[in-house]
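Tutorial sheet, problem 5. The four components below are modelled jointly, 1448 residues in total.
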Amino acid sequence: MSFNSFGHVFRFTTWGESHGPALGAVVDGCPPGLPLSEADIQPFLDARRPGTSRFTTQRQEPDQVKILSGVFEGQDGIQRTTGTPISLMIENVDQRSKDYGDVAKAYRPGHADYAYDAKYGFRDYRGGGRSSARETAARVAAGAVARLAIPEVSILAWVSAIGGDAIDPANFDAAEIGNNPFFCPDAKAAARWEELVDTARKAGSSLGAVVECIATGVPAGWGAPLYAKLDAELAHAMMGINAVKGVEIGDGFAAAANSGEGNADPMRPGNEGVPIFTANHAGGIAGGISTGQPVSVRVAFKPTSSILTPMPTITRDGEATDLFTKGRHDPCVGIRGVPVVEAMMALVLADQKLLHRAQTGR
Amino acid sequence: MSFNSFGHVFRFTTWGESHGPALGAVVDGCPPGLPLSEADIQPFLDARRPGTSRFTTQRQEPDQVKILSGVFEGQDGIQRTTGTPISLMIENVDQRSKDYGDVAKAYRPGHADYAYDAKYGFRDYRGGGRSSARETAARVAAGAVARLAIPEVSILAWVSAIGGDAIDPANFDAAEIGNNPFFCPDAKAAARWEELVDTARKAGSSLGAVVECIATGVPAGWGAPLYAKLDAELAHAMMGINAVKGVEIGDGFAAAANSGEGNADPMRPGNEGVPIFTANHAGGIAGGISTGQPVSVRVAFKPTSSILTPMPTITRDGEATDLFTKGRHDPCVGIRGVPVVEAMMALVLADQKLLHRAQTGR
Amino acid sequence: MSFNSFGHVFRFTTWGESHGPALGAVVDGCPPGLPLSEADIQPFLDARRPGTSRFTTQRQEPDQVKILSGVFEGQDGIQRTTGTPISLMIENVDQRSKDYGDVAKAYRPGHADYAYDAKYGFRDYRGGGRSSARETAARVAAGAVARLAIPEVSILAWVSAIGGDAIDPANFDAAEIGNNPFFCPDAKAAARWEELVDTARKAGSSLGAVVECIATGVPAGWGAPLYAKLDAELAHAMMGINAVKGVEIGDGFAAAANSGEGNADPMRPGNEGVPIFTANHAGGIAGGISTGQPVSVRVAFKPTSSILTPMPTITRDGEATDLFTKGRHDPCVGIRGVPVVEAMMALVLADQKLLHRAQTGR
Amino acid sequence: MSFNSFGHVFRFTTWGESHGPALGAVVDGCPPGLPLSEADIQPFLDARRPGTSRFTTQRQEPDQVKILSGVFEGQDGIQRTTGTPISLMIENVDQRSKDYGDVAKAYRPGHADYAYDAKYGFRDYRGGGRSSARETAARVAAGAVARLAIPEVSILAWVSAIGGDAIDPANFDAAEIGNNPFFCPDAKAAARWEELVDTARKAGSSLGAVVECIATGVPAGWGAPLYAKLDAELAHAMMGINAVKGVEIGDGFAAAANSGEGNADPMRPGNEGVPIFTANHAGGIAGGISTGQPVSVRVAFKPTSSILTPMPTITRDGEATDLFTKGRHDPCVGIRGVPVVEAMMALVLADQKLLHRAQTGR
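Model answer (C-alpha cells):
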C-alpha cells in the first residue's frame, strides 16, 4: 500500500537511487532466531552484480552488503535475527553522473524519464535515479533473508530465451546454469547467445529475455483465494521488477489456447497422504492456493531501453530532438533479472508462509 | 493485505459464496458527491450475467444489485456517494446444491477443491464456494462505482482469442463487440467461435480465452515506481481474477523477443505540451507510471476446469477415483471475463488516480 | 489503511448508516473451522441493544444478525467458519428520519455535522448517518466472531464512573455487572447512578462515563515493539469508538505522577516457568508486548452531544441560530459502550494472536 | 500493518537498536518538490538529543542525520524531495554495552526484557535494543520531513506536569518553553522541577510526566469517521511512543465527568465562512474529522523503568533475584518526549492531509 514496500507480514521496503550514496532495504516481520550474517546475503548479490562479464553493464560495483540492525549474537555465539527490522545497506561506489547531461534535458524513449517528470515535476536523472535496475540489488539482499525463513523451499531461476531465441527444453540441465554468463540451462543455447548478445552489444542495441523460475518444496495450502491469490502476489511481485512486461503462472497464455481436458492436472494417491499430480499445467497453484506441486512462473523482460541508436524524442521544453543513451548499460537486462526473480519468489513465499500460519496455525 | 480486499485508498472488499444467500462488495474511500444509483451499476452486471446465451452457464441469476449504504439524496434530489462505505449486495436465487454430492467427497482436477482442503481443513463445496466465478459479480459492481471516479477514462475490453483461435486485428471493430455473445470485435471470428464453443459445449469440454483491455484518457503521471508500478497493480488485479494464468502489459512477452530499437516508443512534440508517441509497445506505462498513451493489458483465462470427461483424481480419504463435473458451467469462462477485466481496470485506475493526487496534489 | 477497516490479518470492515436499510461488517482472515452461528453473536448484540431500559435511547431495534457468507456445515452437522469472509448484516427497522429536519440545515454543536460537511461537501444527516453510534452494532457482531478465535482469553468490561461519580473499587463485584442497566459492578454506585442518569435524562441533558476493560488469559508475547505496540493497537481501537476522547493502559495518567519505584511491577518465580508479578501498573503490557498479566484499559466517553438545551450554532449558510437535538438519544452513551469496548478488545487480541503466530510460529 | 511502519500514504519505517551501528527511518510517499536538506532535520534532533543537561541521560550522541536517498538538486540549485523514498540515517557513537551484563541474565522490572524473551525467544539486551528510547530519534527525523508537507500547520508541545507537579495554566508562556531544560512553559514550575528532578536523579529514581501538544492551522476536514478517526490515528501514534501509557484528545477524561451542556463547543458565524467556536472541549476533532480549531492532545509518560533501587525480579532461568539498572538513563523520559510527540503529530497530520486530498481532491 505504500509505494516502496512489498509484503504483508514478511515485508520489506527499499530505498536508494542509481547515483546516490547508497541503497538499501529494511526487512520487517522476519521470524526471530534465524542465523543471519552478511555471508548469507553476499553470494546472491554477487550473482546479480554488474561488471562480471562483457554481457552486463561495465559499471563496477562491489555490492558489499552491511547489516545495520535486527541481528544479535546469542549465547551460542551465532548471530541471529531478533524479529525486529533488519536494515541492509549497499554503498554505491562507481557513479559517473557526468554521462547524464543530455538526459537532464530530454526524454529517453522507452525510459521512465517523461513519466517521472509528468508525475513528480522533476526527477533525479543520474543513471535513471530510482527507476534504475540498481534498485534490484536491495531486493536481492532482502530475498536472501526471506530464503532463511523458508528452508523447506528450493528456488531456481534461469533465462529461457533471449531476443526470441529459446532454449530447447530437452537440453535443460540445471547444473549448466552457473557455467555461462547467461544463467542458461542449455549449453547449446548459451553458445548461440554469446554471439547474439555480442552482436547486439557491439551495435549498441539491446535484447529482451524470458526468465523462468521454479520453487519446489512449497507445501499445499499457501496462498489465499482471489485478491491474495498466490498467483496474484507473484504477478504483483514480478511485474514490479524493472523492465518486466509479462507474467505467466504455469502454462500461462498457452492455457488460454487449450481445452479443459488438455489443461487438467489429474491426481493419484501418493505416499503419506500427499497426492501425486500427473501434470502441472497450473504451475502449482489452484484457486490461488499452492497444491504441493512446484510453483512455476515465467517473466518477460523487455530489451533495455538504453541504446546507442538515436531515437526521435522531445526535450523537457517540448522541442523535437534525437537522443541516444550514453553511459554503461546491460545489453540484455533480463540476464541479471535471474537473481532478482528468485529473490521476489522467496519474498512472496516467505510472506505467504507466515500469512498461512497466521490464519490456520499450521 | 487482508485476503479479500483490493486497493489502497479506493478500496473494496468482497464476500459471498456461489451457493450462499448472497454476495457483495463494500467499496471504501470513494470520493463524495458522485451521483450513484443502482441504475449506474446494473448494466455492467447485466453484461456479465450468466444464462444469457447458450455459450455461458445456464444458471439463471438476475444479479440485481442493492445499495445498502454510502449514498444519500442531496438537496438537488440526486442520490450521491457520501464518502462513507458503499455496501453492494446481490442475492443468489438459482442455487442447486444437490449437484455437488460427488464434489464433497472427491477433488475435481484443476479446481481449487484439494488446495482449499489443504489450507482450511474443509470447504464449502457447493458450486465451488468462494472459488466460484460468481464472486466476480461483486467486482463488477464495485467496478461500476470506480468508473464514476474516473470520468476522464474510457475502458474497453474484448475477447481476442478462444481456444487458440485469434481475431484478425485488421477486422477489429469496437462496435461489433456488443453484437455477439463473445464480446468479439471481429465478426468473422465471432462466427467461427460460435461453432468452436458449441462443439466444446456439446462435448462437455471447455476452452481457454484471451481478453484484452484498453483504457484511454489516463493522463500521464498515474502509478508509481517499482512495488506500486501501475503495471504491477494491474498484474495483481488481473491475476486475482478466477481462472487467470497470465498477464501482459503492452507488448508483453513479444517485447522479450524484440530489440531496443524495435521496442522503442519515439516521442514527438504535440499540442498543449502533451507529447505524441509514434508507437505504444509499452502499453501506456513507463517506469511504472502512465505516459498518457492508452493503457493496454492482455489476460489469459484457462479453460473452465469443470468438464464432463471423467478425469483421474482422489477422494478426500486419498483413494483413487475418476470424477467429472455435474452442474451448470461456462464452456469458456473467459467470455464472461470481459466485464470483470474492465471492472478491475477501473478499480485499479480509480485507486491510482487518488494515490497520485494524495502525493502530488494534482 | 482504508477508512472503515480495522486489523491486520484478522480484519473487519463495517458499513451502514443510522437510518439506512441495514448495517454490517465483513470479517476477513478468521481462522477456519470455528463453530459459528447467529446464536454465538446475538447475545452480544442484545447486551448493546437500544431500548432495553429508560437509560438508553428509546429507539426499538431488534438488532437481529444474519450471517451471509463464510460459514458452512461440515460433516459433523456443525456450522463452522470456512476461512473466507464472513458477512454479517443487521437490518434497521425503527428509523424516524423526520426528526432530523432541523439538522439538515444547521450544525449540532459537539456533533460531527460541521466536520462532515467540511470534509465531504454534504452529509447524510438522518440520525447522524455514519457517525451514529448505531455503527457500533457492527463492531459488536464482529467482536463476537473474534472471541471464538481467542478461547484462551476472557474479557470483562464495566462502567466505572458516570458524570464524575465513580465506583468504589472496594465494592467491585463482577457478578453485579449484569444486575443493573449500567453495567456497574458496584451495587451502591448503580443505585446512585439511577437517580443521576434519570435527572439528566429528564432535563434533556447527558453525561460522560468511564468504561474499563480487562482481558485475562492473554499469554506473554502478543503485540510488537513500537508502531504495532499492543497498547498502540488498543488505543487505536478504543479511540476509534464514537464519543471516546481518552484511553489509558494500566495506570495510564496516574503513572505520569508516579516514581520509577512506585510504578515498578516486580517479578517472582511462578509455576511452570510462568513468572508471578506482584503488581500490574503496566496493565499487562511492557515494551508493547503482553507480559501474561491481565491486559487492562480505561476509556473515556464524552457526554452525548444530543441534548434538549438549545445551543448557539450556525446554519449551513453560515447564519447564527440556536439548535437543540430532537430525536431519541442515549442520556449516557458510555453505558452502551461496554459491549463495544469488549468487542474492540477481542478484535485487537484476535488480530495480535494471529500476527504473533505468523512471525514466530507459536 | 507491518510492525515498524506508520502511516497510510505518507508513511515511514524505522529501524535500529540502541547499541547497533546506526538507526534510521525510510520516509515513503512524501510529496515531491519540497526543499529538504539535513539542516531542515537537525534542529529537531538537537532538541531531542541526549546529554544536553543533567536532567537527561549522559550518553553523548551527536545525532547527526544523513539523507541517503530521495532528494535531488533541481535546476535552481535547491535540493528537493523527488517523491521517492527518503532514507535517513543516524549513526550511534556512544554505546557502552558492557553496562548490560546483568540485564542479559535477568529481567528488569517494568522493562520490555521479559516480554521480548517471551515473544522472540531471545533479545538484544544492550541498552534495551529495539525498545530503547533511542528509536525515537528516527521518528523525530521523519517528523521533520513531515512538517515540510504541512506548512499550513504549526505544532507546539511542552511538558505540563512532572511527577504529579503540574504547571499553572495561568502562567503559560510559549516563549518560556525553550528557556529551561524541561520544555516547561511555566517559569515557576520549571524552577520547582529543577529541584524535583534533581532529587530523583540523585536518588537513582525516576519520574513520570505529561506532555501536551497543540497543532494550529489544521483546516476543517482532515481525518475520517471511525477506524481512521483523526483522534484514533493520534492515539495510535502517541501510544506507540516508548513509555506512553495514556492519551487524551481535547478534554479527554475530564469530558467523561462532564454534561452535554458543559462539553458543548458552540459555534458562531466567522469571517470568510469559517465558523468561530466559543469553546474547544473536543480538541479540534468531531466525529473523527478536524473542525478547524486547534488539535490538542495530552500524553502520559510513565517514569523511566531504569532505577538504581534493586527490585525483585527473576533470571532468564526463572530464579529469584534483585536487580537494579546500571547504565545512563533519563531521570524523566517524558522530557525528551516533547520533540517526539511533536514529530508524531506532524507525521499523522501529513498523512491525513494527503488522505483527505486523495478522497476529495481538496
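Marking note: Helices of chain B lie at 38-48, 101-105, 113-120, 136-149, 187-202, 230-239, 260-263, 337-360. Full credit if you identified this.
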